[in-house]
Amino acid sequence: MKFSCKKEDICAAIGNVSKAVSVKSTITALEGIRIKLSYTVLELTGYDLELGIRSTIEAVSEDCGEFVVNARLFSEITRKMSDEILTFETDEMLNIRITGAVTEYCISAMSAEEYPDLPEVSDEHRFLVPQDQLKSMINQTAHAVSLNENKPVMTGALFDITEDGNFNMVTSDGYRLALRTEHIDTAEVHRFVVPARTLSEVSRLLKEDAKAPCGIYNNFKHIVFELGEITVFSRLLEGDFHNYRASIPPDKRTEVIVRTRELVNCLERCALLINEKNKAPVRCVFENGTVKVSCKTGIGSISDTIPVDLSGDAVTIGFNNKFMLDALRASECDKLRIHLSGGNRVVKIIPPEGDSFVFLVMPVDLKY
Amino acid sequence: MKFSCKKEDICAAIGNVSKAVSVKSTITALEGIRIKLSYTVLELTGYDLELGIRSTIEAVSEDCGEFVVNARLFSEITRKMSDEILTFETDEMLNIRITGAVTEYCISAMSAEEYPDLPEVSDEHRFLVPQDQLKSMINQTAHAVSLNENKPVMTGALFDITEDGNFNMVTSDGYRLALRTEHIDTAEVHRFVVPARTLSEVSRLLKEDAKAPCGIYNNFKHIVFELGEITVFSRLLEGDFHNYRASIPPDKRTEVIVRTRELVNCLERCALLINEKNKAPVRCVFENGTVKVSCKTGIGSISDTIPVDLSGDAVTIGFNNKFMLDALRASECDKLRIHLSGGNRVVKIIPPEGDSFVFLVMPVDLKY
C-alpha cells in the first residue's frame, strides 16, 4: 500500500483528529490514528469510544487499505519533514516508510482490525447552524457546565430545539445557568444533551468567521457534527436535564447597565484575595449610579467603586466572584444589563439589547 | 510611613527582584520582598541567601522605613491596579494600604528585622563588560553546565580573566564543553566560578541591545553584577574547575563547513526517535561533500543527507544527539566549522571565522 499527499493537508488532518485519540487505553489501537486509504481519498480517524473525529484529505494512490499508527509520533514526524509532498509506503510486516526528497523514516504501524467502528447515525433529522454561530453558542455556555460527576447529564449542554424554531443551548451547575438562543430553520423538535468535552472540541474545529453551516443530526444515543471534511461523532448524555425555564426570573426590581470590562477588572482585583483557604463572597452595593464592590478574606481586604446606569431600588448582594467573572467574560458584550430582584434573589445578566443569552448567578449570603 | 510611586516603575522593580525570592523558606521573611524607603529612594530586594537582586526606583515621600511583603501577592496587586500613581501607607500594626484613585487594598506586611543583609563586597577590583556581550557569553555557555551536584563547582561557569585581557567564560559537564571569549579592558587576573542559576537571572536582566557596561566585582566568596538601577549579588562556587585548555584539540584532520539550520533540522528529526527508554547515538558519515545522518532505536529509524563543504579525511562518528543540538543552537551563527580528528576523537565546533567560541562534544561508540 503506497500513497502520497501534501504535508500541509496530512498535518492539518492529524491535528484535527488527534484530540479524540485515547491517551491511554486497554485497546492499544485507540492510542493511534486510523489511516484508511481508498485510492485518492485518505480518511484519518481518532476515536476513544466517547468522541470520534474523522477528517478526509486527497491522496495520490492506486491502492486501498488501512492501518493504525501512534498519534503522537506520527504527528511529530510528519510535521518535522521538510518536503511539501510526503510518500507513505507499508510492507506486509506493517512497517511504514515515510519519505520526502532525502529524509526517510521507518516506523511500525498496527493492524486496523482491532480498531472499533464509529457509530452509525442516520442523517434523516438533520438541521443546520452557521459555524460562527455554533462556536459562539458553545463558548457562551461552556462556563456554567457542571463538573459534578454524580449527575452526569448536567456535565453537558442541553440542545433544546423548540417548535417555534428556537435553538436553545443550556448549561447549569445548580449555582449558575447559561442559556444561549438562536433561531434556526427547522420545524422539528429536538432535545438532547451533548458532553461538554465534545462541544469544546467542536468549538476548536469551528471557524470563527465561517458562515458555512454545520450539519447536526442524532439518533438519541449519538450526535454527529459535519464540518466540511471533518466529522465529529459523540455519545449523548442520558438523564433529565434541569428545568431551566422555571429558574429564569420573569421580572426585576432593579436594572443596572454596566461596562463589562470595568466590572471584570474590578472582580479580577477581588480575585487576588480569594483562594481555596481564604474564601468569601464579593459584596456589591448597587445605589446612586455606582456599584461599590468589596471583599475581605484572611489575605486582606479591597474596596472599589465603578459607575453604572441604575434604575429601580438600591440592592446589596453577595456572590461567588468566580461565577460572576465567568459570566461576564462569556458575555462577548462591551456593556451588559444586570437585573436584580433583591439581595437574596438570583442575578440575571443579559445583553444590552435583545435576548440572545441569559446568564444566572445565585446570590451568596453576606455575613456582615 | 507613606510613599507614592509610578505603577510602571514598581511593577518592573518587583518583576526584577522576584526571581531571587525564596519560594519556601524556614525564614518567612525570605518569601517576601524587602521594601526600604529613604525619602525619595525606594529600594526593593529579593534574597534567598544564594542569590540577591536589588532594584531602586524613585518615590515621593517624606518618610524613611522598611517592611517585607509577600512577593507573589504584592506583585499581583500592583499589576492589577488601574492607576498610574500608587500610594502605599503602613500603620503601626504593619498593615499596608495600597490606593489608587478609587481602588483600595489592605494587606499585612512583615517586619524587616528578620530579613538578612546582602553580602558586603568591595568594588576595588571591578571590571566592565558591555551588557549585550555579557548576555551573549552567558547564553552561549549555558548548555554545557553540569547538572551533577556531586561536583558543585562544575554546576557553574568559570570566569577566567587572563593577563592578556581575555575574558573566558567556560562550562563543562565532562561530555561536552563550551568556551566563549571576549577581550576586555583590565590588567588584573580573576578566576572564579559563578552558579548557573545566577547567570541565567543576570542574562534575563541584561538587555540584548544595550552597549552600556555591566560592572562586575568579587571578594572570592561573592560576586556582584551592576546593571544600572539593578544589582545582583551571588555566592561563588568553591572547588577546582576542570582544566579546560588541555581538552581543546589543537589540530584537525577534517574540516567541515555546515549550514547550522540544516543540521539542526536534521538532528531534530532524529530526536523524535530518541527518548529515555530508546537511546542511541546519531551516526554521521562525513564524506564527498555530504554528511549522511542516521539513527535507529526501538521506535524506528531515520536516514537523512545534507550537503556540506568538506576538506580532509572522510570520518564516521557517533554522538549524543542532544549534546550536538544544544551546541548548534547556542552557536548564534548561520554557518559553523566542525573540526574532526577521527571517529573516536572529540568534535570541535567553532564559528565560520574568528575564535569567539569553542564547543566540544565527546564522540559516542557506534555499535554497528
TrEMBL record, chains A, B:
GO terms for cellular component: cytoplasm; DNA polymerase III complex. Pfam families: DNA_pol3_beta, DNA_pol3_beta_2, DNA_pol3_beta_3. It is found in: Cytoplasm. This is Beta sliding clamp. Belongs to the beta sliding clamp family. Confers DNA tethering and processivity to DNA polymerases and other proteins. Acts as a clamp, forming a ring around DNA (a reaction catalyzed by the clamp-loading complex) which diffuses in an ATP-independent manner freely and bidirectionally along dsDNA. Initially characterized for its ability to contact the catalytic subunit of DNA polymerase III (Pol III), a complex, multichain enzyme responsible for most of the replicative synthesis in bacteria; Pol III exhibits 3'-5' exonuclease proofreading activity. The keyword Cytoplasm applies. Residues 1-119 form the DNA polymerase III beta sliding clamp N-terminal domain. Transmembrane segments: none annotated. Keywords: Cytoplasm, DNA replication, DNA-binding, DNA-directed DNA polymerase, Nucleotidyltransferase, Transferase. Residues 129-241 form the DNA polymerase III beta sliding clamp central domain. GO terms for biological process: DNA strand elongation involved in DNA replication. GO terms for molecular function: 3'-5' exonuclease activity; DNA binding; DNA-directed DNA polymerase activity. Residues 248-364 form the DNA polymerase III beta sliding clamp C-terminal domain. SMART domains: POL3Bc (SM00480). Forms a ring-shaped head-to-tail homodimer around DNA.
